[in-house]
Amino acid sequence: MIITRNWLKKYLNLDNISNDQINMALNSLGFEVDNVYDLNSLNSELILGYIEESKQILNTHLKLNKVNIGTKSLQIVCGASNVDVDQFVVVAPINATIANGLTLTNKKIQNYESQGMICALNEIGISQSVINKEDQLKIYNLFDKKLDLKKYLGKDVKQIIGLDDYLFEVDLTLNRSDCLASFQILKELANYFDLEIKNYDNKFNDFKENNLDLKITINKKIEEQIRTISYSNFVLNNHLNKLDSIDDIFLKLNQISSTNNLINDLSLLSTLATAQAHILIDLDKLKNFNLKLELINHNDKELLCLTSDNQIVNIIGLQTESNFSIDSNSKNVLNIMLNIEPNLMRKQQKLLNTSNINLQRYIKPINPNLFDLANSNLANLLSSYNLVNKAYKVKVLKQTYKNKTEFEIKISEINDLLGTDLTINQIKNLFKKLDFKINNKNDLLTFSIDPNRIDILSKNDLCEEVARLYSYDNIQEVALSFISFKKPKNLSLKLENKLTNYLIGLGFNNTKTYSLTNQIDASHWNLFNISDFINLLSPLSNLRQTYRTSLSKSLIDTAIYNHSINNKELKLFEIADIYNLNQSKQRHLVFLTSHHIYKNVLNHQLIENNFYYNKEILENIFDLYNLDFSQIKYVNNLDVIKEIHPYINASIYYQEQLIGFIYQLNPKFEAENKLNKTFVCEINLDILNKLKNNIIEAKTLSKFQSSSRDLTIEISNDLNYQDILLKAIRDVKYITNNKVVDLYLDDKLAKNNTKALTIQFIFNDLEHQLTEAEINTEFEKIISNVKKMKVVIR
What we know:
Elements: E1 2-4, H1 5-9, H2 19-28, E2 32-38, E3 47-56, E4 63-68, E5 73-78, E6 88-93, E7 107-109, E8 112-114, E9 116-118, H3 157-161, E10 166-171, H4 182-193, E11 207-208, E12 215-218, E13 226-236, H5 245-253, H6 262-274, E14 279-282, E15 290-298, E16 301-308, E17 311-315, E18 332-340, H7 342-352, H8 357-362, H9 371-384, E19 388-392, E20 395-399, E21 406-410, H10 411-418, H11 424-430, E22 437-441, E23 444-448, H12 459-470, H13 491-505, E24 509-510, E25 516-517, H14 519-524, E26 546-547, H15 552-564, E27 570-579, E28 585-594, E29 596-600, E30 605-608, H16 611-624, E31 632-635, E32 644-654, E33 657-665, H17 667-672, E34 678-684, H18 685-691, E35 707-716, H19 721-728, E36 735-744, H20 747-751, E37 754-763, H21 772-788, E38 792-793
Parallel strand pairs: 11-19, 12-15, 24-27
Antiparallel strand pairs: 1-10, 2-10, 3-4, 3-6, 4-5, 6-9, 7-8, 13-18, 13-19, 13-20, 14-18, 15-16, 16-17, 21-23, 22-23, 25-26, 27-28, 28-34, 29-30, 31-32, 32-33, 33-34, 35-37, 35-38, 36-37
């Protein structure tokens, strides 16, 4: 990003501020200045001249020119193809040294005395890379609609076209992409030097209601990646298709080639100021007002394009196609403003293999809602060239992005984090000229954030902003103090370590997987309804741009990979954290079993993986956390994602709180990925730690022999087994345990949507040996309770 002193002077009074001070300010504010360029020193003397006569020198490509420099006329020989009469030109007089190192002397060319040089831009310090190919061998013709250039003949031309400027080349970090709008850096410097910004408000404000009924349909494949679509339109006066030299040179100093199209060039100036790219279309060249934003196969590349009737209107990031572009005869101009997911545009830039002012802004995370500012700025620029006949307000077709614009933080939190002793007034003064609003109630500060600062997402970001504006150099260094303290007992960590040892003891492998995934998978596998996903500003790949919302998918991907290399007997687990933007963190456990759970090669013993094996592991984990099993509920969920078996799955609740899931993968998904029968279980350890019973009681073992009774019942598949069990044992004494020992299903039962369960009840007492009569009496109570529920006893 390039900032020039002359541009800053339009808005700030820099009379008492040197270039070194500006350089120091930018670096202090966190904008690293890579290079500075003093353009005024590149050429010792350049003056304005006017070509009165131009005659071809016989048998050469040269011309003999009479150039008026105000006080006299010079005779100059020039070989440029475009030199002609009635041109205002840049003249390097005798003894002047120009940027290419040439010092001018009085010499003869083809026997004609040449008293100086008519200059091309690349000879006086403008990079050849920003000069159009056809203009590189041409002299530069000056134009300024506001100035009577004849009054300035012989004067310093550097002041007229802006070559007396001083440039600061600033390296922007990704989080400060907002400063791709030069207005943002302007505010930062105004705030640093405590200067009032003048001429900032747009002079043009005569906007009319927009009645243009434009429709832009978005292809479903990219719908979620298009954040903002807006448009406005202008009716133009007759115009010359020429940019003032000072604006033309300003574009070139910013490493932007002018397009030789006045309206397009003004839109580039607007983009420099606001960071919002403009797509300009001649409305009269559109057959209808129904456009599409879609991916088009163009030159064997899938490019994001704006189309009309299957014709490409604009390849996003490039200039509008010639069939629809603005020209000197255009009267009605459509101005479309887009904000697109940067990852999509990075792919577009790679395919186009180019870089320009628009692509540089499309690929960075910038406020998606800049359309009103950009439209006003463009209207102001058009108005300064007397081009606006009518201007219309912005219409928004899509606006999905809303950044968090308000934070509350105590002054003590800021000072504790930064090691400062700032007062509320000091903090307010730090943001005085920025688009932040700060209110306080006692020591609680409420920050309304500049909407352009989409990088401020948390209190820590806000504290970092305070430190930046206060200046890191002003924060006093304090020696570290070491305080010994008694390490607190961490029961949660101890339980987690026991849990890890338990699973390893069962033959599970502790696995570590990548925390980042793609947005689609993060949303699809959001089993725990995590809100406000964390998306990286600039991910290396679309496949790794969002923090995962569950651990299950990562472990399943690991299993798929292991099966592909013929490692099919799998027992895997992982313990890791899940995050979101609301500073929420959840500790999760996921474990996975696949194929056989036991395999003995010598005697060919095999035990197939099954739901109840995994459920037993899960319940042993619950036992480790001392949970009350009577309050655990397993609920089958038919409405699950396609990768999960619709019938062999359960959401797990404890005290009516969701704590996790256990499920088999869908057989179709297993077949597609060449997986054997695979079960997955994921639970939220934070909830287990919160609900665990911290009081562990040593249970007395009965010295008397226990007895058992079995009861087989038929229940509907729609009924919850645990609810029935709790009702069955209500007011029954001497029960020490119960469990399902058999499940039976035949065609008749399946037809009636029922199943047969055999439940074993175990009776015992600590005080005496139970008699058969006592056991039978209690067992009859169970049977009676079951009959009251109208459940069939087999």
